[in-house]
Amino acid sequence: MKIISTQSDSFKKEFDEILARAKTDIKGVSSIVTQIITEIIEEKNSALKRHIQKFDKWEVKSDEELLISKEDMKKAYENIDENLKSALHTAYDRIKAYHEKQLPKSWIDFEKNGTILGQKVTAVDKAGLYIPGGKAAYPSSLLMNAIPAIVAGVEEIVVCTPTPNNEVNELLLAACHICNISKAFKVGGASAIAAMAYGTQTIPKVDVITGPGNIFVATAKKLVFGEVNIDMIAGPSEIGILSDSTAKPKYLAIDLLSQAEHDEMASSIMITIDENIAKQTSIEVENYLKTLSRSEIARKSIDERGAIIVASSMDEACELMNEIAPEHLEVMTTNPFDLLSKIKHAGAIFLGENTPEPIGDYIAGPNHTLPTGSTAKFYSPLNVENFMKKSSIINFSSQAIDELGEACAILADTEGLTAHAESVRVRLKKDN
């Protein structure tokens, strides 16, 4: 695994390449995605069926075949191993409990002059969840996207997932059953995003679309934003690790590889203050690569998008990691909480050697749908508020408008909006 030092003359160039890790050629696929969206808008189910035959390699003979039945979900749930069933329920309960703490509250405030101001929080009516199903299917992604929508109080949840050769992952079906999903469809890629954004004869139009996907899915989400809300534009998975001389190289190596095995575009970056730890971790990475089931994918990711940086101090290490703003950040130091105040940008922060990133993927409770490609500088993890919106509440008394009306009218005059000003002043003329 490549090791670079902040003291190297070439460090700035090499670090800039790391920061550019998430730059993807959206322009290169935008014309293709635009065409797919246009076809869905104009032809609806007919286009969906054509796209499924082209990309997922099976023929949809009727609209009903697009729907995944609740019976199939229940059957899959009943047939899975009892230990796995228990694990899914444990994950569900922990994710639900965590997200319930996020619920925003409506509030009302009363001023002395009779003014009433407040905020009303309501769930969106319909949410669309995109769950990947290409190289691998992720039941955990269904839980992570569905549960905050359930907690928010969304009335209708729509799930779309690709089904190559018309095969649906059994664990995904079981997760749908646990979440009581009633509308799930065998549609993937940009077609699914367009269908949920604009609606077809079978798939309802939704208000918000969440969930990860490939560059075509990400581009489609970007293009339909405004017609619907979206959670974020997520790219390939990534991990950052901060370590000192007390970290265990075996832990560091396998944690770096836990993201590298996702796909070739994944990024695994460690910053340490100990050169010996850097070398030992690189050796352990090589040892583990010989044993992984997805070793070819992990190898390419590590070789092309992985790096170990040796920093001169932990302060410098934190500054560099804040620039990277990773999706997942592990802090493997003697006292990890001591660094928490120095960490500004990360999707999720994992503190201590007993908190590997996969704990967050499955069982801890916080959401694993996280900002990637440095967007943690301005995006947050998927949460309950992605499925809710706020309305302002305003009520002025007679006394309140007498006190504040003229100031309001003056501001309207300043902007040349005479009807605005008169709308207030007419209420100040009590004889009216």
TrEMBL record:
Keyword Transcription regulation annotated? no
Return the GO cellular component terms, semicolon-separated.
Answer: cytosol
Query: What's an example Gene Ontology biological process for this entry?
Result: L-histidine biosynthetic process
Catalyses which reaction(s): L-histidinol + 2 NAD(+) + H2O = L-histidine + 2 NADH + 3 H(+)
Per the UniProt record, which EC number(s) apply here?
Answer: 1.1.1.23
Q: InterPro entries from the entry? A: Ald_DH/histidinol_DH, Histidinol_DH_monofunct, Hstdl_DH
Q: Which Pfam families match?
A: Histidinol_dh
- Binding of Zn(2+) occurs at Q259, H262, D361, H420
GO MF term list = histidinol dehydrogenase activity; NAD binding; zinc ion binding
Instruction: Quote the CDD domains the UniProt record gives.
Output: Histidinol_dh
Q: Which UniProt keywords apply?
A: Amino-acid biosynthesis, Histidine biosynthesis, Metal-binding, NAD, Oxidoreductase, Zinc
Query: Which residues act catalytically here?
Result: E327 (proton acceptor), H328 (proton acceptor)
- What does the cofactor field's note say? Binds 1 zinc ion per subunit.
Amino-acid positions noted as binding substrate in the UniProt annotation, renumbered to this chain: S237, Q259, H262, H328, D361, E415, H420
The protein's annotated pathway: Amino-acid biosynthesis; L-histidine biosynthesis; L-histidine from 5-phospho-alpha-D-ribose 1-diphosphate: step 9/9
Q: Which family does it belong to?
A: Belongs to the histidinol dehydrogenase family.
- Give the function comment from the record: Catalyzes the sequential NAD-dependent oxidations of L-histidinol to L-histidinaldehyde and then to L-histidine.
User: What is the protein name for this chain?
Assistant: Histidinol dehydrogenase
- Organism of this sequence: Malaciobacter halophilus
Q: What is the lineage of its organism?
A: Bacteria, Pseudomonadati, Campylobacterota, Epsilonproteobacteria, Campylobacterales
